[in-house]
């Protein structure tokens, strides 16, 4: 999607491009909202709602396009670059590390095409300091920004975490929009154990749902499409049924709170994890991609409102081939679903992958083989695109 609204992008000192803005002009007639396929609430700006819904739909269409997540923090991306290098140990100072991060991002974005990628999530440093957004927008790729801050232990449960960053979020997102961003993403980690071990706690789910809903409303206030990311971890002893239960409970709570905060769901996306057994559960070794697909489709059908225009799954540290098989499996279910099946009514199911897209490419880049890096990106994006159509 080409961003042709550059001349209208406000700077950080201009009035916020606000979905919830109240103007002095009379409210537009209901007929003016017909193209949105929804009845806007009185506090919603029609013009902003039209842009936000258009962006949300463009991120998941046409079928097979998805998002490249490049929002790792500096420490995380440095660890990945060091691990991919030949010697694995480098004595770089902070300026050299920052320069390497910039060069990697430049190379990665330069290698991308918009054949299979609709949007890219950037870390604020990449968008605001390195100013690399234009490399992507010139290719018709939509810019997004990581909104969430760092994690802090939950006071009542040391194995669960609070996500920081809401206090000063609005001006940060307004600055991101001024720099070209049109969507944002907030990740909320959710623990998942067997019922006997008792995680997640109810209070942590409530806090994460409230945090994601507040983020989504602030994002729309700043003129950005919010992507809520409930990341249910799989390191413990939960079986598949327990994972499904936790996914459904968390997602339902998120949307309940989003509606209470006035979030326009038609102008939002969700980035969930795949329900799956934990690494410590015996069934982890025997679970099939077909079982994961059925569980995933059931979670989406039972918990994501029909007004949400798309789902973009996270890979969550899965091996690239596994992440693609899981995505392809759930889309294959959609492909063969009959008209009476709830799976036939699911929104587009696509990807928002990071390591699954860039892992091989990064290995080639640190070795100086830029052509192999580009080939690796082409293969990975094509594989993800095929998976999003159920053809991997």
Structure notes:
- By secondary structure, the chain is of the alpha/beta class.
- It has one domain (47-387): Aldolase class I (TIM Barrel).
- 42% of the residues lie in helices and 14% in strands.
- It has 12 helices and 10 strands.
- The chain has helices at 46-58, 74-84, 94-111, 124-129, 133-137, 169-178, 202-221, 240-260, 289-303, 320-336, 355-366, 370-387; strands spanning 66-70, 117-122, 142-146, 151-154, 157-163, 183-190, 225-232, 269-270, 311-313, 349-353.
- The strands form 2 sheets. Strands 8-7-6-3-2-1-10-9 form an 8-stranded parallel beta sheet.
- Helix 10 (320-336) runs parallel beside helix 12 and helix 11 runs antiparallel to helix 12.
- The longest helix has 21 residues, at 240-260.
- It is globular.
- The protein starts with 45 loop residues before the first helix and ends in a 5-residue tail after the last helix.
- Its EC number is 4.1.2.13.
- This is fructose-bisphosphate aldolase.
- GO terms for molecular function: fructose-bisphosphate aldolase activity.
- Residues 1-31 are annotated as: Disordered.
- Keywords: Glycolysis, Lyase.
